[in-house]
């Protein structure tokens, strides 16, 4: 555990210092290419005596995306930090989060030839605050919330070694026969319940397996960009079941400051049990999240 925390701190410190690092250009070297974008999202729906019914709601949030990439003749080093948080407020209910993410990815590729690279990658995922499911007492009507997640519950740290096929900047696929996935469940209550695949009472689970990461990024028309990423992980103890994390992001740029974007995320993890009683889901199930935002974008770096 001590070594994992030390490694995480070193990674965070390294990424944090990228904007201040400058290298002298030469045939074999280049400077860091950095970019930081902050997007503020706001949506309001209001009803008053609306014949068809409806519920007033206000949602708001922010997403910050930072990249730091370095390309030379010998290697490509890509780093990305994506953090976001959002809330929704409905009449008669307390604010509830509708977005909460911390994602840090560092991917290093050593060139073999034009299209192939030896690769090493680290992928860390977490959240800022506790998450709940909400029900209502049928007699009193009082809102009841049940804890289902928390910061570092779950948290994921995945490291991998493999080989990458890269076709320009549009498509890449990385096969990693050596991949280590660490699941953190540091919340005492969730750990005691054995949530997210840990043994009840344990706070860390380590899995050795293989992974496949496929990425696509292309401007399909003027001011419209499509990005997708699929990450698969299979535990060598049970290769019949693979964890899947798929993201599709479509960005529509209205002008310099205003953007509209659509996000679709689908996750399947055999260690995460469903908790939707209305759909009679009690075992592993496909998790789907989709978001359509209108936001104001600021280029900070």
Q: Can you put this structure into words, describing what you see?
A:
The protein contains 2 helices and 14 strands, in the order αβββββββββαβββββ. It has a 12-stranded antiparallel barrel with strand order 1-2-3-4-5-8-9-10-11-12-13-14. It has a two-stranded antiparallel ribbon with strand order 6-7. The two termini are 34 Å apart. The chain is mainly beta and 301 residues long. A hairpin with a 5-residue loop joins strand 3 (75-90) and strand 4 (96-111). The longest helix has 15 residues, at 2-16. The protein has a single domain, classed as Beta Barrel (Outer membrane phospholipase (ompla), Chain C), CATH 2.40.230.
Structure characteristics:
mainly beta; Outer membrane phospholipase (ompla), Chain C; 12-stranded antiparallel beta barrel; two-stranded antiparallel ribbon; 2 helices; 14 strands; about 5% helix
Share of helical residues: under 10%
Based on helices, strands and strand pairing, what is the structural class? mainly beta
Name the CATH architecture. Answer: Beta Barrel
Task: Give the N-to-C terminal Cα separation.
Answer: 34 Å
Sheet with the most strands? 12 strands, antiparallel, barrel
Major sheet strand order: 1-2-3-4-5-8-9-10-11-12-13-14
Rg estimate, integer Å: 21 Å
Strand content: over 45%
Topology at a glance:
Elements: H1 2-16, E1 33-45, E2 57-71, E3 75-90, E4 96-111, E5 116-126, E6 131-136, E7 143-149, E8 155-167, E9 171-184, H2 188-192, E10 204-221, E11 224-235, E12 238-253, E13 258-268, E14 287-299
Antiparallel strand pairs: 1-2, 1-14, 2-3, 3-4, 4-5, 5-8, 6-7, 8-9, 9-10, 10-11, 11-12, 12-13, 13-14
């Amino acid at each position: 555990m001590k070594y994992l925390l030390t490694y995480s701190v070193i990674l965070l410190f390294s990424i944090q210092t990228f904007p201040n690092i400058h290298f002298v250009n030469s045939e074999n070297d280049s400077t860091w290419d950095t970019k930081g974008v902050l997007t503020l999202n706001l949506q309001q729906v209001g009803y008053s005596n609306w014949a068809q019914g409806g519920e007033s709601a206000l949602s708001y949030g922010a997403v910050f995306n930072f990249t730091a990439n370095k390309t030379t003749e010998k290697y490509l080093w890509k780093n990305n930090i994506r953090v976001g948080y959002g809330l929704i407020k409905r009449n008669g209910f307390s604010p509830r989060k509708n977005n909460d993410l911390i994602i840090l990815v560092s991917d290093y590729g050593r060139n073999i030839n034009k299209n192939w690279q030896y690769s090493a990658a680290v992928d860390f995922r977490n959240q800022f605050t506790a998450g709940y499911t909400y029900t209502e007492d049928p007699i009193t009507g009082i809102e009841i919330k049940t804890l289902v997640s928390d910061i570092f519950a779950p948290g994921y740290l995945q490291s991998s070694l493999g080989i990458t096929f890269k076709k320009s900047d549009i498509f890449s696929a990385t096969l990693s026969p050596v991949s280590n996935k660490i699941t953190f469940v540091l919340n005492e209550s969730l750990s005691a319940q054995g949530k997210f695949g840990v043994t009840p009472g344990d706070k860390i689970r380590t899995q050795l397996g293989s992974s496949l990461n496929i990425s696509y990024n292309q401007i399909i028309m003027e001011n419209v960009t499509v990005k997708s990423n699929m990450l698969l992980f299979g535990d060598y103890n049970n290769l019949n079941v693979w964890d899947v994390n798929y993201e599709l992001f479509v960005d529509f740029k209205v002008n310099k400051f205003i953007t509209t974007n659509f996000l679709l995320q689908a996750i399947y993890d055999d260690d995460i049990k469903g908790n939707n009683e209305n759909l009679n889901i009690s075992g592993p199930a496909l998790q789907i999240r989709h978001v359509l935002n209108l936001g104001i974008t600021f280029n900070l770096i």
